[in-house]
Amino acid sequence: MQFGVFSVSDITRDPVTGTTPSEAERIQGAIAIAKKTEEVGLDVYAIGEHHNPPFFSSSPTTLLAAIAGQTERIVLSTATTLITTNDPVRLAEEYAMLQHVSNGRMDLMLGRGNTAPVYPWFGQDIRQGLPLALEHYNLLHRLWREDVVDWEGRFRTPLQGFTSTPRPLDDVPPFVWHGSIRTPEIAEQAAYYGDGFFANNIFWPKEHYIRLIEFYRQRFAHYGHGTPEQAIVGLGGQAFIAKRSQDAIRAFRPYFDEAPVYGNGPRMEDFMAGTPLSVGSPQEVIDKTLTFRESFGDYQRQLFLVDHAGLPLGTVLDQLELLGGEVVPVLRREMAKNRPESVPDAPTHASLVAAKYGDAEPRQPRPRPNRGDNVTGASPYEDSDPAVQARLPLVG
Length: 396
Description:
It is built from 13 helices and 13 strands. By secondary structure, the chain is α/β, with parallel strands linked by helices. The C terminus is likely disordered.
């Protein structure tokens, strides 16, 4: 099972000190947090995508590529990649490039986003959000698996004889999670393709997410990808940890009370009682997180939100020390108990390569600027005039 952290990339005033970090400080802080995530033994760092203040992560592939160059082991992911307002061709290219740059240490989570104005900024209509998500992913899925694509849809110009470059590393597309807070159609989409389903699991009571996840598991089995228990599920969560429970509650309360997302609403204690928010000692965070398994079954990825609501970088790094040193080791051990052997681990590039090739050497695509075989590099002009063939160099 994978454990990690995710960020929504908010730039929020610290209610204790009254200071607001700059974009530069938050961006460099994100890199520091990702490096610390690896240092303390966690598995995944994920960052969201936003295109408006007060968020900074408008280009997650750029940030994750920078982190890839400064880490060795962690999987780099997105907490949301906007499948609705991004062109699927650009998504295919940018994330395949990140896959190469990171040597396969990446995957991505697709979502529709929760910022309404972003749709017209990128020439789309929010009323078409769900059809956009469905159609755009159908194209993205094909672009990573078909070397030459002819395609026509409702929301972008047709493609004729198009090859996205670079091709996926080892001819194995990045693994995709579909993230949703409330939409069963997205759970259906994830199940149809045999992809992962990530339930945000932050704001709403567990009963809401139980319905979504159970629906996804049933449809995953319906489409022949395995049993419901073998479906690939990820969960979010929020935690603030201190050695003593009362210290955690006292330290986090001002950040909770003024948080842009849930501040000025329910009391923190009420929010903790009704949602997955954990504020307390390491043991209290462990105990609450273990209830997720009781509610949702065995799952593959658990991500914690740790750097939101104006928390200073030093505090976040301290949180990671506690998370990696005292919480996650216990969760790994407890989550492994009585876990059926039939329940798969979270897919990684290495496991996907092994599933495709076994012991054979992976193929590396060599695209040509013609309608030849992009995987092997063979050309339809192999038997033609050598002078013609010489004018057909490899692309890239």
